[in-house]
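Friendly challenge for the regulars: who can give me the structure tokens for this chain first? No prize, just bragging rights.
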Amino acid sequence: MIDEERDTEQVPTQPRHLIEVDDELMDDLEDLVRSRSDFLILNILQDLYPADIAHIINRFETEEAEYIFKLIPTETASEVILELDDVHREDLLQTMSQPKLTELVGEMASDDAADIVAELSEEKAEEVLETMNVEDSSEVQELLRYDENTAGGIMGKEVAVVNAKDTVKQAIRVVRKMAKEHKNIYSVYVVDEKGLLLGAVPLQDLLVNTPNRRMYKLMNAEVISVTTDIDQEEVARIFKKYDIVSLPVTDKVGKLLGRITVDDVVDVMEEEHQEDVARMVGSDADELERRSPAEIALLRLPWVLTTLSIEFVAGVVIHFFDQTLSKVILLASFMPIISAISGNTGLQSAAIIVRGLATGHVDLNRWWNPIVRQFQTTLIIGSACGALIGAIGAIWHGRALFGLVVGFSMFISINISGFVGTSVPMISKRLGFDPAITAGPFETAFQDVVGITIFLTIATALLRWL
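First reply, four minutes later:
Bragging rights claimed.
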């Protein structure tokens, strides 16, 4: 039997190439941009992937970047703009005409379209939504209602959906129709008459079953799904834990609303990692791109002042032990070394725990596991560093006892630092705070105080023999 729907013959597209955007290529493109050689520029760009085109545009100043972007066909431009850095994308969105914006957004998947519309001014966003296709506009407006950091905020509305009583043949028709405009179709989701999610069928299962078989007989009823309010970090953990490429999203009662694909999760993991690293140093992931120098200073100043106030405690400690320092002035030479090494060790421990909490590798219900592992690690690090600095101290001062004081202080400081760096993020998480924010600035400053106190206390106790 001949299927009623036939695939239309398509002209093969020109294959794209992976390239390295080096200085030589950029020099050639800069010459072509200066001479406004539209045809030659397009001849180069048409063979490249959108991500590579975006990388090229990111290396140009605003005016030249806008010129190149306007040359790109709309279908490709809709992919390129998603890969641009925040500064270039923001500049293009501000200067682009409303009809061009509407055309561009209309080429995107619903989740990407919602992200772009969310970056527009309120007035321009309304204009774009009003001139879009009614169905597409409705989908984008629905996605904009969700928090951007939740499953609802990162899901797409492009879902292959069939009824439980539909046949394999009917499901294949749904996939074919959807595939003409959308990519990344991994599964067909099965729902009942009310739209409630019942199960999922991978595409390969449609190919190996008879056309008249009902979908409810094929579906996996134990399909993993999430609700719209689940945090995007939890979504990323689910993808990693269960090794899946697509995840359906439902409302509270189980009605299918959309799906999240693995490419969305890769972006989430990168975003969360950048935020965690930035927060650990008391900063913001996008500060250099989106904020003025004054805004950056105001953002970072509270953390700097907090760290400064803790460091004052270290100053008080040193003043308290001024008699010890005056008698053995060489002790002052080793204080910054102990503080720096122990602080660095604690910061490394904190970074590991913060990342482990984000990825789910650290379980707060088994908090003792990371503490024991980190303690075993710092015992080795502390012993090695303590032995080395102790030997140097003994040779420098000419007394083995001085080396013992320095080495033992280093050993104790590193182990305490590792314990603090491991436990503070977990305590913060348990109390409902962001562990990435509490770990970095406090860890370094705290270890300055602790390391110096331990060092000078031991030195004072053994002063009579030094």
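The first strand starts at residue 161 and ends at 163. Residues 6 and 349 are 60 Å apart (CA to CA). Your move, everyone else.
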